[in-house]
Design a protein that fits this description.
11 helices, 2 strands, 304 residues, two-stranded antiparallel sheet
């Protein structure tokens, strides 16, 4: 074997080893969390832990349902707000925006993706919480007095505030993916549609969007994955009080990531507390992996 071939082989082996180590970290994290969660699973059934709302560690009650539903509430609100705006923005950038406008907006969107979550949290506390408390809640609970607008929480720290902040945080992810996916549609398809008399909007609606629909779904799922795992920003604006699960968008919510971050330091003093919190982390990790695998799987199929 020549020295040149030996160097190539060595580089290939080293890079393969490093890639394997990076991948193995995921499995090590899964294994570590699961092994630390087994203590609580030996005492309580998984069904009781997942479907009980009773969280009283000193009494041996570790129901996680309130935190799981808090995650669902906040994430659902974020998706409802972010998806229509992100899709329309992505379409505008890919199909309608002049080159100069596109070159101006794209870096701004990328900048949004790079802002620290704590900055979003501070912004949420300064802007979104007062907006919810002083304007949205009085208007919606006064005009639309039905579920899910009735609440006795008048602080503004709520599931809605968390959802709005999360929506802003997932905008860049969804917009960027939709923009890239739309650009994969061949120009010939647009020209064929326009040559048949279709308008620009009809071409976008019936040709472009129809072709990239799976990619848009994947973009939403990946945005959802980011929203599910976000911690600091939600912790700062969602209220995070230990009460029943939120029945209104104006109630406080306590999502799983915020719960884990808030309680991790307390867990050593009470038996099984650490195991229950790490089980919550294990569930959150599985949810994030599932959403990511689903989203990237769809994207890979679209690219093929």
């Amino acid at each position: 074997m020549t020295i040149r071939k030996f160097k190539d082989l060595l580089a290939k082996k080293i890079m393969g080893l490093l890639a394997g180590l990076a991948l193995s970290l995921v499995f090590l994290i899964i294994l570590g969390l699961f092994s630390r969660s087994k203590s609580i699973l030996a005492v309580n059934s998984l069904k009781d832990l997942l479907f009980s709302t009773s969280w009283h560690p000193t009494q041996g009650k570790f129901g996680l349902l309130n935190f799981i539903l808090g995650t669902v509430w906040v994430t659902t609100i974020a998706v409802i707000i972010s998806v229509p705006l992100s899709i329309l923005t992505g379409i505008y950038l890919a199909e309608y925006a002049p080159r100069r406008v596109r070159e101006f907006i794209k870096p701004l969107i990328d900048l949004l993706a790079g802002i620290s979550p704590v900055i979003y949290g501070v912004w949420g506390g300064v802007v979104i919480v007062p907006l919810v408390r002083d304007y949205l809640m009085p208007f919606l609970s006064g005009k639309l007095r039905f579920f899910p607008f009735i609440s006795d929480n008048y602080t503004g720290y709520s599931a809605l505030a968390g959802g709005i902040v999360l929506a802003v945080m997932v905008f860049p992810i969804i917009i960027s993916i939709i923009d890239e996916i739309i650009k994969t549609v061949p120009l010939e398809m647009r020209e064929a549609s326009l040559s048949l008399g279709a308008t620009k909007w009809e071409t976008v609606k019936y040709v472009v969007l129809k072709r990239v629909r799976p990619g848009i779904i994947a973009a939403i799922i990946l945005g959802l994955s980011r929203a599910v795992g976000e911690t600091i920003a939600v912790l700062m604006v969602a209220g995070c009080s230990l009460q029943e699960f939120p029945k209104s968008i104006f109630d406080t919510a306590y999502p799983l990531p915020a719960f884990i971050a808030n309680t991790y330091g307390e867990m050593m003093s009470i038996p099984l507390y650490d195991s229950a919190v790490l089980l919550a982390a294990f569930i959150l990790l599985l949810m994030t992996i599932l959403f990511n695998m689903l989203g990237w799987g769809i994207l890979l199929r679209v690219k093929e």
